[in-house]
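In practice, a research group might receive sequence data for several interacting partners and want a quick structural hypothesis before committing to experiments. The following worked case mirrors that situation: the sequences arrive first, and a predicted assembly follows.
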Amino acid sequence: MTSPVPRPLPGTIDETLDLLTGADYVADRALATVLFLSLRMQRPLFLEGEAGVGKTEIAKVLASALGRRLIRLQCYEGLDVSSAVYEWNYAAQMIEIRMEEAAGSVERSAMEKNVFSEKYLIRRPVLDALTGKTGAAPVFLIDELDRTDEAFEAYLLEILSDFQVTVPELGTIRAEEPPIVIITTNRTREIHDALKRRCLYHWVDYPDAQRELEIVGRKVPGANRRLSAEVVAFVQRLRQIELFKAPGVAETIDWAGALTELDKVALDPETVSDTIGVLLKYQDDIARIGQGEGKRILDEVKAELAAAE
Amino acid sequence: MIEARDDGRMADNIVYFARALRKAGLRVGPASVKDAIEAVLAAGIGSRDDFYWTLHSVLVSRREDHATFDEAFRLFWKSRELIEKMLAMFSPVAPDNREKAKPRAAEHRVSRALFEGHEKSQPLSEIPEIEIDARFTVSGNEMLRGKDFAQMSAEELMDARRAITELKLPFDRVETRRYRPDRQGSRIDPRAMMRAASRTGGGLILPKFRSRREVHPPLVVLADISGSMSQYTRIFLHFLHALGEKRRRVHAFVFGTRLTNLTRQMRHRDPDQALADCSAAVQDWSGGTRIGEALGEFNRLWSRRVLGQGAVVLLITDGLERDDIGNLAEEMERLHKSCRRLIWLNPLLRFDGFEARARGVRAMLPHVDEFRPVHNLDALADLVASLDSRTVAHVDPRRRLGHLAQKSGVASGRVA
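A structural hypothesis for the assembly, expressed as tokens:
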């Protein structure tokens, strides 16, 4: 992997917006403002929102647009220091001890130094994120923080306030320049206020029809214009009715892509019921939209689009 | 640090704005006020929108607060309307010729916060203080334990509350994926081994062990506060508060015609204060009940947020659904499938010969793991003791349905 050339941070909100648009991320001004502030004030950005609205994508786009390394920490229940921060290579350490014994040098302090040297340290994402050089700090994505437990959250609080980690056998490791931290959560659990307070908060909402159409246009370039308009209008309607899980932008893109692959140029009731699994992921929702309601929405969408033309 | 400029009053205004937000219920500390000023300095003041989102990013930390912020921003940073409002407030008869628009969310709360102290002061209603000296005697305690909450006098209820706070709370535990050092453990702890080995110079590498750490699973309580349950509601809230004090993850919801999340209100340490906060938050005390709808709302909006990590659900209701029971069974099934254990507590079970006859009860029973009475202190103590054990026969919900199927019409004795 070639290391990308780091680019400087944007200087204004407009530049931030251009940066995102240039990397094919269609953001609204609110998001650009928060992102700009988080870069300027060196504060972690805390993104909350439903699944599939493009929270993780922001970090990826930011990393590629700024030419920074992306370090991703996927959270899960039971995530602990040895898999998030660092771990020692125990097997190699044991061999080292045996070797030194065989060589006959059993000087305790020297041995301890050799055994616990950086050579045997396995860096995990958090430690990795703290080793960026000035001007090239990596983008550190802490994905789905709500999946971990409170214990890890508390630990993270410590890291995010000082950007340093203490390894007892080695000493303190401190970041030359703090990484660009982006935290995402799906709200499967409330995150503690103390952690939120250290971050800039932003709720990522579903995009409006116009912006979603632009997103589909960029992400599925092959899609027919009429098809994309119908897909977006259909999805926007679906979000208004009370579904167990409303479709996100990712689903819209997938659906538009799937329909394009099937060489469709417009939606019809059969196609909708055949491909609804791309859009809705719960059986109850699928059954509901499959039984008539989908057709009604489709008719409304068609009428609306016909009126707009 | 931020230096105040002589000619500008922006910083002052932001401080005032933050203060108004705090009064309207947002958690805005002094640190975030400083951050807000820094953020405005960093972003510069461009358009109104940019300014809005700049302040928003620092001062709002929950999605629920967005509406309040929006309203406060509109009121505060628009001088014309503010002056109008001030005028309206200070002139004795202000002709209200503005169009009556639908009140925006949080408008009332925000305008109260902004104009606090300017309304006509209202005489404080005096609350008579009543002191009751009700000392526990052993026999009194025993009588109390078997007495139905609904038949208790005010004094007895006080005693019951005290007894609840003294209940020994359950120690049900689930294993996590974290470890703790444990000599009797069965898993090797390599990190501890290397540390110990380096201490002895590597001559001896002795095995160290660890085992999984255990924690309380989250507890989610869904309590019915409709009219038919009203005698029990307060005591349950006390019970919830006692639970919340001892364990970390307790989520409390109440429902009548709508669903209200009381988790935050319940966090107050003082039970009376917590209950007062709850009363203020709930708008449908002792009204009707729509169990199916409330459960549906819970499933849709909350289940994924609070039922993670092996939650146990306590559903407190009499199961008397007022409306038709249309989707009640489906919603119960979904709830049952999304939690580790679903325990239904029904005060009606106190009656001898309770039978699952009501349609709502029949719809709900197949989807619960346990079906228990909850009308007196003994029942509560039983519940507490049972949280950490397996389902026992007499609370098995299928028994109730089975009884009815076998000998319908014959009153079956209560075994509880």
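Before designing any experiment, note the following. The mean pLDDT of chain A is 88. The two ends of chain A are 49 Å apart (CA to CA).
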